[in-house]
Helix-turn-helix domain-containing protein
Amino acid sequence: MTRPEGSDEFLAGYTRILADVCATGRRLTRDELEALRGQGERAAEAGHGLRTLIRRHLAETRAFAPDLAAAGVDRVLAAVEQAVDAFAEGHERAQKFAMRQEEADRREFIDDLLYGRSDLGRLAERAERYGLLFSRAHAVAVAQGARPVDDTHPATRDVETSLLGRFGDRRILLTTKDGRLVCVAPGDQDDVLAFFAKHAYAATDGGRVAIGRSHPGAGGVVHSYEEALNALELADRLELGEPMLRAADLLVYPVLTRDRQAMADLVQDTLGPLKGARGGPRPLLDTLTAYFDAGCTAAEAARRLSLSVRAFTYRLERIHQLTGADPADPVHRYRLQTAVIGARLLGWPDTEV
C-alpha cells in the first residue's frame, strides 16, 4: 500500500510500528518512542509546524485503517496516541531548545551592543536581525523602577504591547538590562522614546526614565546608553524630582565634575565654614538648596522647608556671616549655587571631599 500524498521522511517507520503494535497488542518500546521523538525534533529543526505534521500522521493512519481494523478501534487509537505524543514531545523539545538558544543569542547581542564588547562589523550584521540599522543614529532610553524587571516581568510585556500597538514594525529594540527597561530607537524618532518614557513610568509604578542623546553607529548606542545611566545616577544624587530626564539637559553637571579636585576645593572653601554652625552644616545646606530650587524666592523656599519667612531669612543671613558670600548677591549666588551642586554630587558633608 502506498503512502498518502504529503507524507515525508519524518513519518518513516510510523505505519510499520503502528501495524506491529496493533497486531501484538503491546505498547511501543523505549527505542520506538525515542525514534519518534527524534523524528519530531528533526521536523522542528527543518521548520515544519506541529499542526501540519499531526495532520499527516492522522492521514497516514486513515490510509492504513483497513489493515489495522482487525485490531479494534481502542487498540489502534491507543497506539496512535502513544506514537503521536512521542513525536509531539520531540517537536516541542526542539522548539524549546531553539527558543532558549534564540534568547541566549539575543541576550549576548544585547550585552555586546550596550557594552561595546564585539567587533563593530559583526555587531552590525547581527543588529539587522533585531531591526537595527547602524547606518542611522540611535538614541537609548532607560527606565528604572523601585523593583528590578526582566524580560518576563509584566511591566516589560505591558510596555512592549503598547509600543507595538502604537508604532507597529518600526525599528525599535526593547529589552531589559540589570533590572531596568531599555529602549533603542532611531535618533530622529523622539516620539518613540517619549512614548516609551510615558508607558514605562506607568508600568514601573512611578519609576524614572532617562533618555540619552542621539549618536551614530554601533558605538553611538553604547554612548547614548551610558548617558542615560549617568542621568539616572545624577538624578539620584541630586534628588531631582522629574520623572523623565534628558541627558542633553544635564550636560552642565558632568562639566562641573570633570575636574573633581577643583570641585572639591570649591565645596570645601565655600561651604566648609558652615560646619561651624550650631547643628552642623546640613540645615544651612538644605536652606541653600531650597532657595536655589525655588528660583531664589525666599517665601517659596521657606514654604518648602516648613519655615516662616523670618526664620528662613535668618538662615540666609547666618550663611552670609559664616561664608562671607551673600545668597542674594548675583555674583556670590553663582559661586554658592555651584558649590551646592558640587556638594550634592560629591555627597558632602556626609562624605569628606
Remarks:
- The beta strands are 137-144, 173-177, 180-186, 208-211, 215-216, 244-246.
- The first helix runs from residue 14 to 24.
